[in-house]
Amino acid sequence: MFEIMPIIMVLIWGVVIVSIIFAVIKGNKAKKKRDEVYSRVKLEKAADIQNYVNMLTNNAELEKKRQACKKSKWYMGLVVLIVAGICLFFQFFHPFVLIVTIIICAIIGSVATSSYSKIYKNQVIASILKNFDKDLQYMPENGIRKDVYRIARFESFDRYSTEDLITGKICGLDFALADVHTEDESRDSEGHTTYTTIFRGPVAVVELKKLEDLVVQISDNHLKIFRGNQYVELDNQAFEDKYDVFTNNDVIAMRILTPTLTTKILELHDTFGFFYEIKLIDGMVFFRFHSDTLFDPSPNDIEKEATDIAFYFNMLDGMKNIMEEIIKTLNEFER
User: Fold this and answer.
1) Can you tell me the distance from the alpha carbon of 286 to that of 154, in angstroms, rounded to the nearest whole number?
2) Per the confidence metrics, is the pTM higher than 0.90?
3) Residue-wise pLDDT tens for the chain (335 aa)?
4) Does residue 281 contact residue 243 with C-beta atoms inside 8 Å?
5) Strand, coil or helix: what is 297?
């Protein structure tokens, strides 16, 4: 029994270390892609970002919470190192002790971050949104209803969560934008449940209330998902290199997808570097951005927070431009 225990301990630590390595590699890839996007945004929106930095630093209550978050992170890291040192010194090298310590520290740290996040969202983001468009409201604890998201039929999922709702009018139409997180549930032979993320990012819904029988899906050209609809080829090679279009009515779809519209879709894609898809179904237009969470505060990095804000408000502006073109085309149908 005692001869087996060291082997088990080595295996456990091996699994922990390998998991950490893979998480770091995955995180670095995502960070590299995001950094590339941020570099472009910083150059193009330098004045906006500086304005947001000033708003963040001039909020005394937010700055106080920011300093508390920084201290909390430093203290928690110190506690983990001390516990690890004690374990090594007394030769009590048990991963359970260290894991429990990390979990407890993470919980304590999340409390400080949560307190900061409430001020960040309810004061700063809400104020910026009002300056951006007085017809929009921000409700961070609300989101897009699950039954509304299901209308788009993006994917099947087992668990759904949503927050950071922006709602109001865009181009005169009812509009909602929120973070959405969908997950798949699986169980192993022992009954343990695991949840795997399918999608996480901003989703926007515009109630067009026209062409309710029309389905137009603009999706990644690597997916090759027909879903009972026919493929439409457009006379725009740059667009075709990134997107495929499927529809149940190719005549109307071709009239909507004008060269101007496809160019605007590409411009928004190229500006931010994140793939997004558009779907017109049941008289609604859905935008889904594969860019991770919306308005995620970063207490330890003011410039990143400001860049995030610039990123998402310019993303919102890009959606407005696309919707304006769609509405313009639909209005021409009725003449």
Assistant:
1) 10
2) no
3) 445 656 655 666 566 566 566 555 555 555 666 667 667 777 777 888 888 888 888 888 888 888 877 766 655 666 666 666 666 555 555 566 666 666 666 666 666 677 888 888 888 888 888 888 888 899 999 999 999 999 999 989 999 999 999 999 888 889 999 999 999 988 877 777 888 999 998 999 999 888 888 899 988 765 555 556 788 888 778 888 888 889 988 888 888 888 889 888 888 888 777 788 999 999 999 999 887 777 788 888 888 888 888 888 888 888 888 888 888 887 776 65
4) no
5) coil
| Residue whose entry in the numeric block shows the structure tokens 């080829």 | 233
CA-only gyration radius of the chain, Å: 24
Alpha-carbon dihedral sign for residues 281, 285, 291, 292:
negative
Nearest to 199 by CA among 214, 211, 182: 182
Alpha-helix runs per DSSP H in the chain: 4-44, 46-57, 60-89, 95-119, 126-132, 146-151, 237-242, 250-256, 259-272, 302-333
Contact 272, 7 (CB under 8 A): no
CA distance linking residue 307 with residue 53, whole number of Å:
9
Contacts of 238 (CB under 8 A, 6+ apart): 266
* DSSP code per residue over 207-240: E--S-TT--EEEEETTT---TT-EEE--S-HHHH
Q: Which residues contact 122 (CB under 8 A, 6 or more apart)?
A: 140
> Burial, 96: exposed, middle or buried (Cβ in 10 Å; 0-12, 13-18, 19+)?
exposed
Residue of 197, 220, 239 whose CA lies nearest to 30? 197
Measured distance CA(238)–CA(273) in Å, rounded: 14
Amino acid (1-letter code) at residue 63 = E
Measure the CA–CA gap between 316 and 138, rounded to whole angstroms.
Answer: 13
Contact 306, 56 (CB under 8 A): yes
Rounded Cα distance, 165 and 169, in Å:
13
State residue 128 phi and psi, 5-degree precision.
Answer: -65, -40
